[in-house]
Amino acid sequence: MIRQQLDILDDFVQGMQQALKSCRPGLVSLVTRIQPLDPLSFYAAAGQWFHGQRLYWSTPDHEFTLVGLGTAVKIESDQDTRFDDVTKEWKHLIANTHIHTEGEVMGTGPLLLGGFSFDPQKPSSSLWQNYKAASFILPQFLLTQSKNQSYLTINAYIHPEDDLPEKIDQLNRLKERLITRCMDFSFAQEVHPITLNVFEPAREEWLSSVKQVIAEIQQGVLQKVVLARRVEVESETPFRPEQILNYLRQVQTSSYVFSIEWGENAFVGATPERLIKKEGSRVLSTCLAGSIKRGQTLEEDLALSKALLQDPKNRVEHEIVVRMIKQALGDLCTRVEAPDQPIIYKTKQIQHLYTPVRGLAKDNISLLKMVEALHPTPALGGYPREEAVRRIRELEGMDRGWYAAPIGWLDRQGNGEFVVAIRSALIRHRQATLFAGCGIVEDSDPQSEYEETQMKLKPMLSALGGH
Ligand SMILES: C=C(O[C@@H]1C=C(C(=O)O)C=C[C@H]1O)C(=O)O
Ligand SMILES: [Mg+2]
């Protein structure tokens, strides 16, 4: 069986070599089904070779996981035209691709993993220097776990003068070593509680910005502005992304768990908020806004859910998001559907108001067009969008970087999914910067909003070891 596979691959490589002689550089992508592997062990085991070039992405309940390692091709943009820039480069790249695959499984073969910053017009701080307005990689190795099956894609960008068989051979050898190391890997069972120093800059300034925004909303131009703040955390020992991810995937089961390592930084988190998912022409977006804590008992938890569903301030906060997303998708879809009433979405520490919005994309509308049209929704920016983002830029004394921004993946057929990177932390060695925001509306109370951000910091503080 294996022999036969290798022969087929050999023929493919020979054919490719011939084809390349007469044409331009191109992308080679080889997909094989492999024995089931634990994706996070694969991520962890790869640290030795791919430190600073690893990406992890998993949907709630681990139904679909991608692990990208290394860079076959990088696509970046620091311009306002970032969505178009990525689209153009991606189209160009896949126009000249040779794919060898065992069956077409979504999320395998050549695909881009990465994301965008929140606001390309905000001057970027040194904290986020590795995270551009748009940064994507086509990974050298991609592990896809879908419906309990594992697939490994090897991607290589080949020039006509390259020795293709040698290059493929090298990658195959590294693949075998990665798999062996992955199977030997195990996570430290107990995470020892560590001492974290938590520092909260500019608390008073943040509270006065909230007051300021409430006053502006009452004057009538703005309806909602999402204001965020950051906290700085320092640990005695270096943070390890794989340990944080291992905790998040066990505890935050209703969230997307992600890590994006660029150089010495890792941006990690567990977000419950999908921005947009596209499969063929079917699209699914999520309105998530309005928050309350979880109860200690089942009764208290239900009482809190009920209170949230009936709370006028939270309903307004939520409704502004639903209206905007329905309208934005209305322009890009032939049909848009959403229930009239929100339901409750629970994570470990927080419950939210939740409304799914479904649509059928018009023929020429791509996933990135939709991301561009939606970002930032009033769940992360505000309403009206331009004015709200301008106020965020002026009032928040920090650079959000990729916090609250779209991160995700897209494939060559235009399928993919983007979430907004909240409940997240940017880590580097022993330092971490955490972010949390909340939707300010006319009836907001500054102190309650502050407490809401405290609650939203909890998931990441726990994940970093500060139980
Ligand atoms: C901005 C954040 O969360 C957003 C704000 C919410 C709110 O204000 O109720 C709820 C969910 C998110 O859309 C965050 O977690 O940092
Ligand atoms: Mg809120």
What does this structure look like?
The mean pLDDT is 93. Strand 17 (343-346) and strand 18 form a beta hairpin. The longest helix is centred in the middle third of the chain and has 21 residues, at 164-184. The protein has 467 residues and is an alpha+beta fold. The strands form two sheets. Strands 1, 2, 3, 5, 8, 9, 10, 11, 12, 13, 19, 22 and 23 form a 13-stranded mixed sheet that branches. Helix 2 crosses helix 5 and helix 2 packs antiparallel against helix 7 (241-251). Helices cover 35% and strands 33% of the residues. It has two domains: 2-184, no CATH class; 196-463, Anthranilate synthase (4-Layer Sandwich). 46% of the residues are buried. Magnesium ion (MG) binds next to strand 15 and strand 23.
What is the number of E strands? 23
Question: How much helix, percentage-wise, in residues?
Answer: 25-40%
From the helix content, strand content and strand pairing, which structural class follows? alpha+beta
Name the CATH superfamily classification of the largest domain.
Anthranilate synthase
Head-to-tail CA distance between termini: 50 Å
What is the class of the largest domain in the CATH system?
Answer: Alpha Beta
| Beta strand % | 25-35%
Main beta sheet: 13 strands, mixed
CATH fold node name of the largest domain = Anthranilate synthase
The total domain count is 2
* Tally of helical segments: 12
Low-confidence stretches: none
Query: What would you report as the Rg, rounded to the nearest angstrom?
Result: 23 Å
Tertiary shape:
globular
CATH architecture of the largest domain: 4-Layer Sandwich
- Give every kind of bound small molecule, once each: the ligand C=C(O[C@@H]1C=C(C(=O)O)C=C[C@H]1O)C(=O)O, magnesium ion
Mean pLDDT across residues: 93
Domain Chorismate-utilising enzyme C-terminal: 203-456
Protein name: Isochorismate synthase MenF
Organism: Caldalkalibacillus thermarum (strain TA2.A1)
EC number: 5.4.4.2
